């Protein structure tokens, strides 16, 4: 394995666009217990996975190994409430990234805009059996996407597969008068999607990831909620990177990212509010085992959103405008989700 200098790597003009969830495909199960019927809490399981979408970018002028697609804003309001049962869900994502930024947050000249559409199918189950005081469950998420990267090309097909062999959903408890729901999940992304080292645009990351998260929802009052989901991300090595990188291996750095919301129960099952996300890479990516200085990426986003519950159906809509990006594509996206609880 030869060594590759960061300077030479900067000359790369390739897109490592992956689907595992930027929009994400990594992650998940969201179970939700939605409550509202004139003062009484009615428990319903509601799961939301996450995933799918488009990933980040490595373009001329960037010394950077892109993070895979992760759950940035694909889960939002009422994230942590859940209970035993099944859920089936379909998620649609549309994103436009019109600006590529360097390590200082400045636009990279000549970089193509990237447009993507993706969809995922998510099935999750939580049992009545308890481990460490929480109900045990599992989930699987399948995904597909189409990415148009302009002059760099396009790609479409199946994305990575997310599996969670361990979901722990704790029953609701009260703290200082507030209802609190919590969940911990061990997610793993398998590189099963479309990938070719001869292509500059791919749907799969061609790497295995470990991606656990912790979610909490607090009902400050009966009509006000705030939800937080915090993830850790570790990436394995891609030993067959695109040939345009002139590298024998690449590895994206470790990262921390979270989603956050604040919503108001406007009328019966209708909640409206603000949703946002943030990702921060905490270690340098590597090319042929050599760390790349000034390469970590970050981005944040905020926007309006809503969820409406009618019987066993749940409908979500979330919009996001990104800002403060470094070493990353940035733009805006829309997430639509439909869920059926059984």
The helix content is under 10%
Average pLDDT rating: 83
What would you report as the Rg, rounded to the nearest angstrom? 20 Å
Task: Tell me the series of helices and strands, N- to C-terminal.
Answer: HEEEEEEEEEEEEEEEEEEE
CATH class: Mainly Beta
CATH fold group? Lipocalin
**What best-fitting shape do the alpha-carbon axes yield?**
globular
**Using DSSP, what is the number of strands?**
19
The tally of helices reads 1
Under the CATH scheme, the architecture is: Beta Barrel
The major beta sheet can be summarized as:
14 strands, antiparallel
- Measure the end-to-end span: 52 Å
Question: Into which percentage range does the β-strand content fall?
Answer: over 45%
Domain count? 1
Describe the model:
The protein is mainly β. Helices cover 1% and strands 53% of the residues. The strands form three sheets. Strands 3, 4, 5, 6, 7, 8, 9, 10, 11, 13, 14, 17, 18 and 19 form a 14-stranded antiparallel sheet that branches. Strands 12-15-16 form a three-stranded antiparallel sheet, with no helix packed on it. The N and C termini lie far apart (52 Å). Mean pLDDT is 83; it is low at 1-62.
């Amino acid at each position: 394995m030869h060594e590759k200098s960061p300077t030479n790597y900067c000359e790369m003009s390739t897109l490592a666009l992956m689907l595992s969830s930027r929009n994400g495909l990594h992650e998940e199960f969201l179970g939700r217990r939605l409550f509202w019927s004139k003062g009484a809490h009615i428990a319903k399981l509601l799961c939301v996975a996450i995933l799918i979408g488009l990933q980040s970018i490595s373009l001329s002028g960037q010394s950077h190994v892109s993070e895979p697609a992760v759950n940035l804003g694909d889960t939002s309001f009422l994230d942590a409430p859940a209970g035993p049962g099944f859920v089936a869900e379909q998620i649609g994502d549309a994103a436009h990234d019109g600006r590529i930024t360097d390590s200082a947050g400045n636009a990279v000249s000549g970089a193509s805009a990237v447009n993507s559409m993706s969809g995922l199918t998510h099935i999750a189950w939580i049992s009545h059996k308890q481990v460490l005081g929480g109900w045990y469950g599992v989930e699987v998420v399948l995904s597909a996407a189409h990415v148009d990267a302009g002059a760099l090309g396009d790609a479409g097909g199946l994305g990575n597969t997310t599996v969670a062999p361990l979901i722990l959903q704790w029953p609701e408890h009260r703290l200082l008068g507030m209802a609190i729901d919590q969940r911990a999940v061990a997610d793993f992304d398998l590189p099963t999607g479309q990938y070719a080292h001869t292509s500059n645009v791919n749907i799969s990351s061609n790497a295995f990831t470990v991606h656990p998260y912790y979610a909490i929802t607090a009902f400050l009052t009966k009509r006000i909620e705030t939800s937080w989901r915090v993830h850790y991300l570790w990436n394995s090595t891609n030993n067959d990177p695109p040939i345009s990188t002139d590298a024998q291996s690449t590895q994206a750095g470790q990262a921390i990212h979270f989603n956050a919301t604040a919503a108001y129960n406007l009328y019966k099952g209708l909640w409206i509010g603000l949703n946002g996300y943030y990702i921060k890479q905490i270690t340098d990516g590597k090319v042929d085992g050599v760390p790349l200085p000034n390469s970590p990426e970050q981005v944040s986003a905020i926007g309006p959103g809503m969820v409406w519950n009618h019987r066993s159906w749940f409908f979500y809509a979330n919009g996001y405008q990104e800002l403060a990006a470094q070493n990353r594509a940035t733009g805006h996206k829309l997430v639509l989700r439909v869920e059926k609880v059984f």
